[in-house]
């Protein structure tokens, strides 16, 4: 049985289910009660929230709010471009998701309004979602300009490998960088799937850049971790600074360049989107990757791979150990998902409407936003828990891909409590009977060595960021010769890299964010 008891029982006891709500007459809804929300989709490769969804229907009939929910691009650069273009044309929506870098620009240009006053208008949501640390994450000079809630769960990614390929080729689980190379080479050239074709690759990735993992992004972070230069910034007291300035960074690039030059990485990594990368591993072409627990192990996400390769098996392994014994999955910092309110919405008097909507999403609307429609996507059992048992058509259970479109606003309500995670990450069984537990996988991923990073570092110009990212990628692909690395670093510093490092160190020191030298969390000390 798949259930969540604590949360749902409390809603039942409080009479929060929709059947107890009085319906509001939609006639006469004015401009003030029309709310436009630009959201980040919970499932990137699923359709947007349908306009006729039960969630939008309840928002209209229960709150008297006409909700227009528009998905933002999943690519971070495209998302930033959309928001900044909208700001310049004075067409930002009432409320929208935004990252810290873009929010900084919007605050500076006076496109968004302060949100401090909203917390008192949504007391239950504030208790669940907004603590002092989250408020600080979107504050500038002591003024809060964004509603910051817990974002992605810390340390929820890891190195996954095709164990069935290892077994077929008689290979042990790789440990060192040399082991990794040998396994990736065998996965590429020794026909690990036995189909007689040269159509597999040792490693799959895409350029998944985050503020704390610039350059090649987090999918390549374990290789940088083997040299002790994972993440954008080294946050140790003895060696603080941009990792790109460390000699070991070039060594990591040389290793990754060798993988690429020898054809061991799926060559589409330079152009892959998040969705096309995931289609690649689900198509059985990839033998190793860094992937997220839910994107891999949720039934709705694993199903396509399972149907194609029912006898396949992936396992989680430790990140590679480098020449000096260093190892890390990558850098992590507590992440926040920020929603900002446009200045125009404030001028139109919509702040109380926005607060009313968000408070409802965390109370009366929580079940619908998180699990869909009763008797279609979920059932409530005798103990007041969420279950998928007894549904007329199990295809539309909230755990299945067909339900993904109606659950696209889940990011607005999830708060990552243990009781919630049990329902979000239910255990299920693959076609060949293998137990699949996204929650257990999460805990295993969190037990691997990770590196603490400094969040909210000072930003850089769009020009320097592009120069940094494109050139690092060119050194891997061979478009730039690694023999010119030191010369390029001087150019990087001349364009603002040295000043950026100075500002990052000053910020970390001023906020007491630098750590002792032992910054990599040992597996036995990693926190859940």
UniProtKB/TrEMBL annotation:
Location(s) in or outside the cell: Periplasm
Domain of life: Bacteria
One GO term describing the cellular component: periplasmic space
UniProt key word Transmembrane helix: no
PROSITE patterns: PROKAR_LIPOPROTEIN (PS51257)
InterPro entries per UniProt: Bact_solute-bd_prot1 (IPR050490), SBP (IPR006059)
Keyword Membrane: yes
Signal peptide: none
Assigned keywords, A-Z: Cell membrane, Lipoprotein, Membrane, Palmitate, Signal
Main location: periplasm
Coiled-coil ranges from the UniProt annotation: none
UniProt family annotation: Belongs to the bacterial solute-binding protein 1 family.
Name this protein carries in UniProt: Putative aldouronate transport system substrate-binding protein
Organism: Treponema ruminis
């Amino acid at each position: 049985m798949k259930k969540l008891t604590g949360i749902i029982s409390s809603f039942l006891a409080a009479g929060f289910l929709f059947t107890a709500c009085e319906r509001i007459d939609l006639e006469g809804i004015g401009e003030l009660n029309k709310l436009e929300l630009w959201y980040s989709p919970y499932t990137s490769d699923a359709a947007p929230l349908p306009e006729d969804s039960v969630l939008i229907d309840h928002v209209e009939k229960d709150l008297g709010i006409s909700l227009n929910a528009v998905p933002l691009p999943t690519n971070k650069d495209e998302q930033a471009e959309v928001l900044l273009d909208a700001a310049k044309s004075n067409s930002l929506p009432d409320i929208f998701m935004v990252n810290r870098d873009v929010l900084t620009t919007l605050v500076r240009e006076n496109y968004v309004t302060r949100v401090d006053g909203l917390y008192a208008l949504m007391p239950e949501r504030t208790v669940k979602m907004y603590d002092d640390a989250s408020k600080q994450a979107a504050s500038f000079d002591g003024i809060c300009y964004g509603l910051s809630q817990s974002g992605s769960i810390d340390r929820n990614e890891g190195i996954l490998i095709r164990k069935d390929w290892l077994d077929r080729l008689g290979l042990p689980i790789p440990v060192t960088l040399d082991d990794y190379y040998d396994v990736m080479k065998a996965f590429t050239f020794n026909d690990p799937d036995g189909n007689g074709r040269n159509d597999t690759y040792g490693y799959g990735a895409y350029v998944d850049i985050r503020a704390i993992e610039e350059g090649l992004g987090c999918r390549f972070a374990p290789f940088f971790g083997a040299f002790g230069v994972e993440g954008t910034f080294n946050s140790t007291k003895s060696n603080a600074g941009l990792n790109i300035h460390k000699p070991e960074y070039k060594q990591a690039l040389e290793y990754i360049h060798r993988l690429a030059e020898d054809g061991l990485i799926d060559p589409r990594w330079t152009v892959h989107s998040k969705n096309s990368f995931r289609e690649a591993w689900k198509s059985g072409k990839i033998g190793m990757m860094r992937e997220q627990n839910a994107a891999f192990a949720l039934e709705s996400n694993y199903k396509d791979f399972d149907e194609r390769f029912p006898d396949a098996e992936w396992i989680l392994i430790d990140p590679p150990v480098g020449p000096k014994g260093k190892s890390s999955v990558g850098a992590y910092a507590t992440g926040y998902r920020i929603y900002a309110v446009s200045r125009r919405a404030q001028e139109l008097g919509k702040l109380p409407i926005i607060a009313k909507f968000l408070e409802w999403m965390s109370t009366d609307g929580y079940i619908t936003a998180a699990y869909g429609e009763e008797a279609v996507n979920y059932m409530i059992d005798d103990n007041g828990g969420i279950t998928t048992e007894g549904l007329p058509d199990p295809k539309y259970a909230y755990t299945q891909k067909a339900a993904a479109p109606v659950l696209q606003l889940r990011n607005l309500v999830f708060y990552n409590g243990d009781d919630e995670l049990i329902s979000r990450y239910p255990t299920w069984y693959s076609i060949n009977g293998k137990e699949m537990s996204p929650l257990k996988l999460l805990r295993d991923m969190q037990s691997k060595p990770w590196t603490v990073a400094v969040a909210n570092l000072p930003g850089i110009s769009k020009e320097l960021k592009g120069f940094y990212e494109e050139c690092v990628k060119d050194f891997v692909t061979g478009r730039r010769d690694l023999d010119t690395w030191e010369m390029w670093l001087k150019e990087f510093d001349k364009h603002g890299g040295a000043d950026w490092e100075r500002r990052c160190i000053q910020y970390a020191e001023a906020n007491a964010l630098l750590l002792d030298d032992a910054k990599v969390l040992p597996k036995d000390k990693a926190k859940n």
